[in-house]
Amino acid sequence: MNHFYAVIMAGGSGTRLWPVSRQEHPKHTLPLLGDSSLFQTTVERLKGLFDIDHLIVVTTEAQYDQLKEQVPSIPLENFLLEPEPRGTASVVGLAAAMIQKHDPNSIMAVLPSDHFISNSDLFQYIMKVAMDVANNGYLVTLGITPTFPATGYGYIQMGEPIPGQFSYPVYQVVKFTEKPDEAHAREMLAQKDHSWNSGIFVWRTDRIMEEFGVQMPGLKEKLVQVINAWGTPMQSEVFKNTWTDLKSETIDYGIMENASRVAVLPASGLHWSDVGSWDSLFDVLLPDENGNIVIGGN
Questions:
Q1: Rounded to an integer, what distance in angstroms lies between the CA atom of residue 293 and that of residue 51?
Q2: Where does the chain have alpha helices with state H?
Q3: Which end of the chain is more exposed for a tag (fewer CB within 10 A), N or C?
Q4: Those residues with Cβ within 8 angstroms of residue 198's Cβ, 6 or more apart along the chain or in another chain
Q5: DSSP, residue by residue, 86-135
Q6: What is the biggest distance separating any 2 CA atoms in the chain, rounded to whole angstroms?
Q7: Quick one: three-class SS letters along 220-236?
């Protein structure tokens, strides 16, 4: 566990859940599914897998106070505040570069802060297997077994099983498909070899930095500049100036779609939802005896 780190991405605004989710109070800071916020339940889900001082939270300055108040046990220095949103590729790259500098033997997990997973025991079991696979040099993603032809999720096509003594099925990734139309989604569902892309990743930091060097060398060069200035009087200036010049890109498009040695663990039974819309929220909330769903008490 000394070399395991988790990076929680907590900078989004969750605009599809407006008016409950707003810029000042985005969905991951809200207690939508119980007494705790989605961010708090994400942190709770990681207990036992990662030490609290190995949790890195990437967020914005506007959200920092809320998140720190909700989980005060996370050290102050473990909050990375983006000067401006620049997509998940830069967020993941910055966190990986910082962790790699601190611990060259590190393995990192990347997790959204606003997902719902009710089966935490199975989640932890799969994550342990994912870390084992990642330690063998693979970039690992968790796939969600699809239950309907969703058009709002990306899809991952599974290929041959990856050899090894793993205690859970692991497959090579054939390709990623971003948010298809309904006809294509139905086709992939019928093939029974596709998973939804959960947005949860696990890899060694040296492996993901290697992929940044191959696929996004410009970004890697910028990240090196930021890391070299970190902890010096130039940190704030270099960070802000470098970040402003970055092109916004996702980790899926920027790295995963063309990466080598990519593995997927298809997960069923997690009771997972990205809680990205009112429809998905209603899928995981139980109505009362009158068929009504009440959030917040009034």
A1: 36
A2: 38-45, 61-70, 87-102, 120-135, 182-191, 205-215, 217-229, 235-244, 251-254, 278-284
A3: C
A4: 115, 141, 142, 143, 144, 267, 272, 274
A5: -HHHHHHHHHHHHHHHH-TT-EEEEEESS-EES-HHHHHHHHHHHHHHHH
A6: 61
A7: HHHHHHHHHHCCCCCHH
CA angle 22, 10, 29 (to 5 degrees): 45
Indicate the burial class of 19 (C-beta count within 10 angstroms; 0-12, 13-18, 19 or more): exposed
Q: Would you give the DSSP letter of residue 151?
A: S
List of residues 6+ apart from 45 with CB closer than 8 A: 117, 120, 123, 124
- DSSP 3-state of 250: coil
Q: At what angle do helices 217-229 and 87-102 cross, to 10 degrees?
A: 50
Residue ranges of the chain with pLDDT lower than 70? Answer: 1, 11-34, 273-285, 295-298
Whole-prediction pTM: 0.88
**Look-up of token digits 């089966």:** 119
Question: SS3 of 264, please?
Answer: strand
Q: What is the pLDDT of residue 292?
A: 81
Q: Is 202 helix (H, G, I), strand (E, B) or coil?
A: strand
What are the CA-CA distances from residue 264 to residues 113, 125, 126, 138 (Å)?
A: 21, 15, 11, 10
Task: Give the integer Cα–Cα distance in Å for 86 and 247.
Answer: 7
Residue with tokens 């054939």: 174
Model pLDDT, residue 284: 66
